[in-house]
Amino acid sequence: MSISVMELLEEKAKRFGASTAQDDFQQLFLDSTNYALDDIDERLGLSTARVTDTDDTISLDEQM
């Protein structure tokens, strides 16, 4: 299962009335996504890669 970071960003931007082009919004989104991935890793014993760009994909396939 892989999740597009850009699709998540677009959904959050719509929800909060922000623009996906805003650098501040993008950075806050990437930081919060990485915090959530850290929690998933810790609680479920997974090893997900941190996202560094909105073009990244979160992949959980190798964990299955």
Condensed summary:
This protein is mainly alpha-helical and 64 residues long.
Structural class: mainly alpha
Shape label: elongated
Number of domains: 1
Query: Average pLDDT, to the nearest integer?
Result: 90
What series of H and E elements makes up the topology? Answer: EHHE
Task: Order the strands across the largest sheet as they lie in space.
Answer: 1-2
How many helical elements? 2
State the total count of DSSP E strands: 2
Parts with pLDDT < 50 across at least 5 consecutive residues: none
Q: What is the strand content? A: 5-15%
Helix content: 40-55%
- Sheet having the most strands: 2 strands, antiparallel
Q: How far apart, in Å, are the first and last alpha carbons? A: 9 Å
* Radius of gyration over all CA atoms, rounded: 12 Å
